[in-house]
Amino acid sequence: MKKIKDILENVSINTIYGSTDMSINEIQFDSRKIKKGDLFVAQKGLHFDGHQFIEKAIENGAKAIVCQEKNTSIDKKNITYIYVEDTNKALAVLASNYYGKPSKKLKLIGITGTNGKTTIATLLYNLFKKAGYKTGLLSTVVVKIDEKEIEATHTTPDSLTINKYIKMMVEQGVTHCFMEVSSHGIHQKRTEGLHFKGGVFTNLTHDHLDYHKTFATYRDIKKKFFDELPKSAFALVNIDDKNGMVMQQNTKAKKKSYALKTVADYKVRIIENQLNGLLLQINNTEVWSKLIGKFNAYNLAAIFGVAIELDLDKMEVLRIISELDSVSGRFQYTVSESGITAIVDYAHTPDALKNVLETINEIKVNGNKVITVVGCGGDRDKTKRPKMGHIATQLSDQVVFTSDNPRSEDPETIIREMEEGVSKENEAKAVSITNRKQAIKVASKLAKKGDILLVAGKGHETYQIIKGVKSHFDDYEIVTKLLSNQQINKPTN
Predict the structure, then answer these.
(1) Is the separation of the CB atoms in 182 and 236 below 8 Å?
(2) Per-residue pLDDT tens digits for 276-286
(3) Residues 6+ apart with CB under 8 A from 315
(4) Which pLDDT belongs to residue 102?
(5) Nearest alpha-carbon partner for 181 in 194, 191, 171
(6) Mind listing the domains of the chain with CATH numbers?
(7) Which string of DSSP letters, residue by residue, matches 199-212?
(8) Averaged over 322-342, what is the pLDDT?
(9) Phi, psi values for residue 391, rounded to 5°
(10) Which of 95, 185, 186, 221 is most buried (CB neighbours < 10 A)?
(11) Would the pLDDT of 131 be above 80?
């Protein structure tokens, strides 16, 4: 239990009615979870306004309410009302205070950008584990508290959950935590009240415009994360991306950069790029990595930079980089007995798909085909669908358009919107098969020895959502099984 007055530090308060000297059990923003003695925060969300559920929260036993709209119709007897400027921000700060400001008790690094967040956060977790540290991970795929794994539900969880996990990490002796920071999470104030030791910017491309409406808004929300970093932190940005310098414009943090093309604090040069890995020069020292592609060279530059900023030994970092494996669903590949290479990747934005296909075309042998299976998610940014269709057919020899997670949308409508981006000269390359498993099956039958089959869009996800129904679906599992059952297809003359 905590006294209300002890968790109000740094909360922007307008007015308080009632006593703050009383103790509360837990903080909740869902009135259905309220138990006797809890504090209810009336959050303003995308679809619901918590102010509509204040009476229900009180009925369920709430003894204190944090809100930003005054309601004179509610009886204030025995209930403490705290009126604040912004309940979303207040929730985050209250959560940090309630759990004892756990982010100040370890080194928390936030990774933001359109592509690469999961890979960088996961590789950093693995690198620091190999270096002998107790480490935490808050990612799209999984939450890790040292060795313990918890399935993730959001790229950036709600602020109560974030602080709860970080407190658990501190209790387990974790010294470093690597966290994906999404634009949604920043905009909804979920990261307020957290103390970051460093921030990493990967890149900024077309994504989430269904939510942010304009690219400028999307960029500025990412920038806000760096604007709020303290002097004691570092701001490490990809300086090859024109938005890298924008991120650092108003930051108080120590400015650091990484790049492949331009002068930077952490400079990487690709010496060899093959299907079995990368030979890189990182700050004038050669290192071999099992990871593949230019985009992974950027990811490795970022993790090298973070590790050095956190005072790890340079040669030890390079040694561990040479041992790191690829992240599940990120350029995850297998080679069948019939000689077909299948790659599963989370590429679900135009830029990510372009990067993956350009990498495949760089490493493939002349005469071998690139066959791509790709879809777009439903209830998400529709403007990227024709771009995805154009890129897939432009950079592949054959393409099968299919469903991804259509959610509440008609999958065939999504596919038609992807087809709109296909140029006339590439129309013959594409077919559309709505059933994703059938699409992967057809693509695997089209592949011959030496060909590369890319299954893009879902990556690590092991489910598909159709008309609100969630069912098991694992791209890697399916394509591996299909190719293992397939007879060797000899290339035709």
Answers:
(1) no
(2) 899 999 999 99
(3) 285
(4) 98
(5) 191
(6) 2-97 (3.40.1390.10), 101-321 (3.40.1190.10), 332-484 (3.90.190.20)
(7) EEE----S--HHHH
(8) 91
(9) -65, -45
(10) 95
(11) yes
